[in-house]
Write a structure and sequence with these properties.
Blueprint (H helix, E strand, L loop, with lengths): L2 H7 L5 H12 L5 H21 L3 H4 L15 E2 L6 E2 L1 H13 L7 E2 L3 E2 L5 H13 L7 H21 L10 H15 L4 H13 L16 H20 L17 H5 L14 H5 L13 H14 L6 E8 L1 H7 L8 H4 L3 H11 L9 H4 L2 H8 L1 E5 L1 H8 L8 E7 L8 E3 L9 H17 L4 H8 L5 H6 L2 H6 L5
Parallel strand pairs: 5-6
Antiparallel strand pairs: 1-2, 3-4, 5-7, 7-8
Length: 478
């Protein structure tokens, strides 16, 4: 079935597919803010990937699917010596970017991390640069990022897949499939068909994100989704047929099978809205609904650090999603469990005055004071916080903390509405994000290898014109 026939002659087509493909292939990016934010996003995402390389739980998953199966002209995996076919490379890069829950975030009816799509984008761009399109530049990477962010983020505004138990990496697969198809040279018809397959795949369950089953799959699920996207694009490029009613087919379509027969909709026209408003995790590697709670806890640390044994209770007010996702009591079994527990992410900075990726490891979790403080926390929803959270003009993520002592005294209530990574605090956040990046690359590179990376993102016009092959070469390690 040709794409032309589907678009012009077949009325039984889910219009969402045409809207997405037309956007990916035809929409010009004219927003200076979107281009500039994409530059910061690329820098931050690669910094997160470099941090992940410290953790054996991540690095054990990297490399080719079959040991030794490398390609001389394959896509390079930053921070490693791996050169892989693009499906495997996408998994590697996607897992690294996402591993520490420290990359960018989008919060709406559905949550997610749009930079997860970078696994497919970098893998496809570098593979094409190494094979048929040596002149491809970083501008193509940033354009694909802007469009993948937009597809994932706009689909997330009104469609709460979490409400039916599906994980947000469904949207990573959808967005990555569309942009990967274009990067790989698919025509619009092939891209359309690939996109329908992305929906037919259904969705991963959220089992691995919630107690009692929270586990490390949540750190590689996005890599899995982005690699599947590349595979679907490559399959479609053989002129494999598509399924124009993948969403709406009665009984057998995505909507009837998995979405309680509700229509999947785009809340607004696709442009650059998501990249312009994306949230960066700058200060803490923590689930985003807890970012302002951690900041509040850091503020309280000097006042309470010497009175921990006098604390009677800790009142935490949060938004509705914060209660639903990360309000967690009882045993926490692993780092993946802990970085999705609001009480844990508050207890550590109250005690130590910090929250780093290492603080989710067993040596910190076994400190008895952590669970003692968790047991004293009372978490509840503040309906005003929830209202502001869902307000598309505000997009706040508020939390408040107040500590009460046995002698009847208490701290002031510390309330934080916007995290440092919010657009409203962008001026404050960008220098901190640059420092986060410099710290990250300093863990993996030194000397002559480190120097060009330190300034790689400083000049946007120069970055846009840089060949992808040159950009990727900077990240190769022996």
């Amino acid at each position: 079935m040709s794409h032309t026939a589907v678009r012009s002659n077949n009325a039984l087509v889910d219009p969402l597919f045409n809207e997405i493909i037309d956007y990916v292939y035809d929409y010009p990016i004219t927003s200076d803010l979107a281009w500039d934010t994409a530059r910061w996003c690329l820098m931050d995402s690669l910094g997160c990937a470099m941090m992940a390389l410290k953790f054996p739980a991540c690095t054990k998953l990297l490399g080719p699917v079959v040991p030794g199966a490398t390609l001389d002209n394959g896509a390079r995996v930053p921070g490693t010596s791996h050169r892989l076919e693009p499906v495997a490379a996408a998994f590697n890069i996607g897992a690294m970017v996402r591993w520490l829950d420290y990359n960018d975030t989008w919060l709406a009816a559905e949550w997610g991390h749009p930079s997860d799509n970078l696994g497919a984008i970098l893998a496809c761009a570098d593979y094409m640069a190494s094979t048929t399109h040596p002149a491809i530049t970083v501008k193509s990477i940033l354009e694909a990022m802007i469009k993948a962010h937009e597809i994932q983020g706009v689909l997330a505004i009104d469609n709460g897949f979490n409400r039916v138990g599906l994980d947000h990496v469904l949207l990573v697969r959808v967005a990555s499939t569309a942009v990967a198809a274009k990067l790989l040279g698919a025509n619009k018809g092939q891209a359309f068909n690939a996109l329908t397959h992305a929906w037919i795949d259904g969705g991963a369950l959220r089992t691995y994100r919630h107690a009692p089953s929270t586990g490390s799959r949540k750190s590689w699920a996005a890599g899995d989704a982005t690699s599947r996207a590349v595979r679907l694009a490559l399959i479609a490029m053989t002129d494999e047929m598509g399924y124009p009613q993948a969403l709406s087919a009665p009984k057998w379509g995505f909507q009837d099978v998995l979405f309680e027969s509700k229509p999947v909709t785009l809340a607004r026209e696709l442009d650059c809205y998501v990249m312009e408003h994306v949230l960066f995790k700058i200060s803490f590697p923590a689930e985003f609904h807890a970012q302002t709670a951690v900041e509040a806890a850091m503020t309280l640390h000097p006042e309470i650090k010497d009175r921990l044994d006098q604390i009677q209770r800790i009142e935490v007010r949060t938004q509705e999603p914060g209660v639903r996702i990360i309000d967690k009591s009882g045993p926490l079994n692993n780092p993946a469990d802990r970085d999705h527990c609001l009480q844990y992410m508050i207890a550590v900075p109250l005690i130590f005055g910090r929250l780093t990726a290492d603080d989710y490891e067993d040596n910190i979790a076994l400190d008895p004071r952590v669970d003692q403080l968790r047991d004293k926390m009372v978490v509840s929803e503040n309906t005003h916080f929830s209202k502001d959270y869902y307000d598309l003009q505000l997009r706040s993520i508020p939390n408040s903390i107040q500590v009460f002592f046995a002698d009847g005294t208490s701290t002031e209530k510390v309330e934080v509405h916007f995290p440092v990574g919010h657009r409203r605090r962008r001026e404050e956040g960008l220098p901190l994000m640059k420092q986060k990046f410099l710290t990250a690359i300093g863990q993996q590179y030194s000397g002559d290898a480190l120097k060009p990376l330190e300034t790689l993102f400083d000049d946007l016009p120069k970055l846009l014109e840089m060949p992808v092959s040159e950009f990727a070469k900077h990240w190769v390690k022996a």
